[in-house]
Backbone:
């Protein structure tokens, strides 16, 4: 019998999203196969939402072979926190939340003043959670197109026993062969969507029909203009308190905005937009000449430590 298919019968061509998804599934399964105690970092943001879909395709109908972990600064947008809890409950997966507030109470994080951004201090809380649970791999949604320091990282990014990253001491990655092996106390950060772009993420969200926190879509919000960015002010926290007050002399205005990335309120800025659907966001993303972090992250625009230095200290 002829084992070859008829010449007229050809397998369907894979789109670029199919290739990216296939690579991400392979990476996630490699983590599950090589690591004893992995964890998936889930904040409720768009990149980690894509990771959840990848995990579903990699492991369903079984349970994920890892829990979900969010390091909460205590100053996250309440819409995102509510989405995080709801999505984890829908999936029926274990969600672990550790907070910077807990690190402050332990004394491992000391703020210079009450209004200091807590974003950088997430590194301490993350490393404490890794030690608490003995995680040997953290699966994250970082992408190489976001920032030049992230472009240096491997798919499997090795961290030493102090949680530090050395960009000059990385393991080679040839073809699709990955090494996630570690000694006691060490761990790996795995980035299944490292090769994706912001546009790829939005196209994948559209294709998969993924739900998102409402602040990704155009809405009206109080902002001030600071260092050329729109800074949200008087933002309600989960507790009901308001944070991020305007500085003296700043004029509060109402603008129609959306968030390209979400994180700590103190350092995440929206952009002006009328895009109220994923399709319209894709059009905006395809036509912009500003990078995602360059247009929205206050900590990348100020004198705060560089992303590379923060990553060396254990940052995501």
Residues:
């Amino acid at each position: 019998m002829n084992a070859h298919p008829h010449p007229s019968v050809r397998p369907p061509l894979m789109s670029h999203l199919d290739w990216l998804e296939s690579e991400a599934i392979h990476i996630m399964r490699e983590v599950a196969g090589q690591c004893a105690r992995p964890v998936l970092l889930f904040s409720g943001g768009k990149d980690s939402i894509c990771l959840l879909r990848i995990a579903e395709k990699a492991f369903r109908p079984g349970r994920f072979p890892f829990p979900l972990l969010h390091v909460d600064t205590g100053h996250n947008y309440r819409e995102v926190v509510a989405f995080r809890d709801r999505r984890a409950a829908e999936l029926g997966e274990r969600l672990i939340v550790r907070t910077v507030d807990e690190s402050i109470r332990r004394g491992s994080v000391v703020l210079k003043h009450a209004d200091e951004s807590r974003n950088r201090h997430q590194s301490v809380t993350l490393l404490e959670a890794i030690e608490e649970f003995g995680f040997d791999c953290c699966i994250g949604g970082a992408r190489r197109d976001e920032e030049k320091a992230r472009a240096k990282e491997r798919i499997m990014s090795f961290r030493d026993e102090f949680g530090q990253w050395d960009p000059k001491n990385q393991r080679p990655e040839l073809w699709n062969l990955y090494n996630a092996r570690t000694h006691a106390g060490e761990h790996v950060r795995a980035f299944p969507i490292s090769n994706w772009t912001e546009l790829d993420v939005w196209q994948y969200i559209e294709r998969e029909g993924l739900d998102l926190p409402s602040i990704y879509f155009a809405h009206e919000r109080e902002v001030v203009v600071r260092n050329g960015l729109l800074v949200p002010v008087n933002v309600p926290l989960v507790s009901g308190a308001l944070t991020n007050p305007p500085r003296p002399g700043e004029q509060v205005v109402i603008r129609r905005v959306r968030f390209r990335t979400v994180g700590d309120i103190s350092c995440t800025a929206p952009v002006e937009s009328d895009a109220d659907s994923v399709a319209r966001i894709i059009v905006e993303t395809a036509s912009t000449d500003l990078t995602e972090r360059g247009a929205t992250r206050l900590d990348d625009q100020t004198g705060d430590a560089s992303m590379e230095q923060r990553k060396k200290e254990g940052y995501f």
